[in-house]
Amino acid sequence: MKAIEIDHNEGRARSGRLLTGHGEVDTPVFMPVGTQGVVKAMSHRQLTELGVKMILANAYHLYLRPGDEMIKRMGGLHKFAGWDGGLLTDSGGYQIFSLGVLREIKEDGVLFQSHIDGSRHFLTPEKMVRVQENIGADVAMCLDECAPYPSTFEYTRDSVELTTRWAKRCLEAKTDGPQKLFGIIQGGFYPELRIRSAHDILALDFDGFAIGGLSVGEPKSLMWDMVDTVIDLMPADKPRYMMGIGLPEDLLEGVKRGIDMFDCIIPTRFARNGSLFTWDGRINIKNARFTEDKGPIDEGCSCPTCRTYSRAYLRHLVVSHELTSFYLNTVHNVHFYMELMRKVRDAVKNGTFGSFYHDFKSRYEGGESDDRCSVCNG
RNA sequence: GGAGAGGUUCCCGAGCGGCCAAAGGGGGCAGACUGUAAAUCUGUUGGCGAAGCCUUCGGUGGUUCGAUCCCACCCCUCUCCA
């Protein structure tokens, strides 16, 4: 069964529908990250009301706690968590990167030391496919190695080859079922290796393909060079997923290049850390200049937070370490991302993505976001 | 009235002759965050400046080459006893 239907194209940009076991998801889509089976500070109901159709969870984290077998006995993560929407799980490949000191990469898999209790676990491609099947994700990801930046050519080459061998094993380990499995193109920041990885991974019969190993500390221009290097090699009739990206401007850049799916911790973590998105740029609600700002985070925003609360009050909640600030700020940032993607999809459908892209960027990057302050305080 | 303890940079609190513009918290200010070990992390927090200089550890005197640190007196807190 196909994983995506593409309805419109504008240049490389495209819009359509991702077909999951839990409904169709309009693309390009942004998936908020819910590592532990929950988008931090959110309820599923709130997510749904904000228009979130698909979230990402993490197989490595859920395997450690509460355990994938336990989740399976509870009827799968959808039932266990009460989430009815799309669910994609990352395999733990990113944790190979982010939990570097606690692991050892071998041919067969990765030896991990739990960050929770120090216990040792050997994670293989086959095992992580099984874990994701137990979790019941609509889309599972292959176990891959996300190499750090910078890495030598030799290291990256070996890493790419390992990722390819693992990808084959993942495919073989997959059982029949509705779950879709995506392969991941790696290759660090060597175009030659990106092309080789694309060639090898795209030759395998995955339901969709991801570009991984990006935004690991490299200059932004290098990241887009890598996307440009492989994007035209990717089949048009399968989903293209840019893993772990990104900032609002990154989403536009990705869509422009033909990406269908994104995920990132940015809207949620930034919200918890006081960074809030507006159409005129990002603000840090902790800044002193918002102390008596009676306006909403963003004048044009229709989210529940902006409809009710002032910047001054939201700042007070953050400064006072009130838990509700996590919720209110996350609602706003997730809403911003959902609105952004909705506008992006509409623009692609209408053939106006090009102008939307420029209008957004000039306002978002050029606008002085606290113009409003003088009005509020004046 | 008697006996103790103490007054340190925005706050709490170390320091007890030079390495002290003064540890460590807190608070303040700013920044970071890209398949979440993140309710996290980093920088900064007397003044002017490049080195450096100036003002600062309750007050006033003193000892000393040199005092936040030692001595004398004074002011103010707190505890206990009358």
| Biggest pleated-sheet summary | 8 strands, parallel
Question: Proportion of β residues?
Answer: 15-25%
Task: Kindly state the number of beta strands.
Answer: 16
Radius of gyration: 21 Å
The percent range for helix content is: 40-55%
Taken from the alpha-carbon principal axes, the silhouette is globular
Give the averaged pLDDT, no decimals: 95
Oligomer description: single chain
Helices, by number, come to 16
Low-confidence stretches: 368-378
Distance between the termini: 60 Å
Secondary structure category: alpha/beta
In the sheet with the most strands, the strands line up as 4-14-13-12-11-10-6-5
Question: Which key phrases capture this entry?
Answer:
single chain; 378 residues; alpha/beta; 8-stranded parallel β-sheet; 3-stranded antiparallel β-sheet; 16 helices; 16 strands; RNA-binding
Write a compact overview of the structure shown.
The protein has 378 residues and is α/β, with parallel strands linked by helices. It has helices spanning 44-49, 59-64, 68-73, 77-81, 93-98, 125-135, 153-173, 191-202, 220-230, 248-256, 266-272, 304-308, 311-319, 324-350, 353-366, 371-377, and strands spanning 4-10, 13-20, 23-27, 29-32, 54-58, 86-90, 103-105, 110-113, 120-123, 139-141, 180-185, 208-211, 240-242, 261-264, 275-278, 281-284.
